[in-house]
Amino acid sequence: MKQGFRKNRRDGVIFGVCAGMADQFGFDVLWTRVGFVALTLLGFGLPLLLYLAVAILAP
């Protein structure tokens, strides 16, 4: 049985959200962080709000 999304505090830098996403989808954590920063710069801060929401709500 596959578990739901979990933050990865072991490999995480701030809250472990990007590391958890990298684990969930099988990506390298470096490219997940680079993609997040690019989306934040292009998305006028909306990805940052989503990041904070996941950091608060995800186990």
Automatic annotation (TrEMBL):
Top-level taxon of the source organism: Bacteria
Membrane topology: Single-pass membrane protein
Lineage summary: Bacteria, Pseudomonadati, Pseudomonadota, Alphaproteobacteria, Sphingomonadales
Positions of the Phage shock protein PspC N-terminal domain: 4-59
InterPro entries in UniProt: Phageshock_PspC_N (IPR007168), PspC (IPR052027)
Transmembrane stretches, start-end: 37-58
A Pfam family per the record: PspC
Protein name: PspC domain-containing protein
Places the protein is found: Cell membrane
UniProt keyword list: Cell membrane, Membrane, Transmembrane, Transmembrane helix
Keyword Ligase attributed: no
Keyword hit for Transmembrane: yes
Coiled-coil spans in chain: none
GO CC annotations on file: plasma membrane
Main location class: membrane
Organism of origin: Sphingopyxis bauzanensis
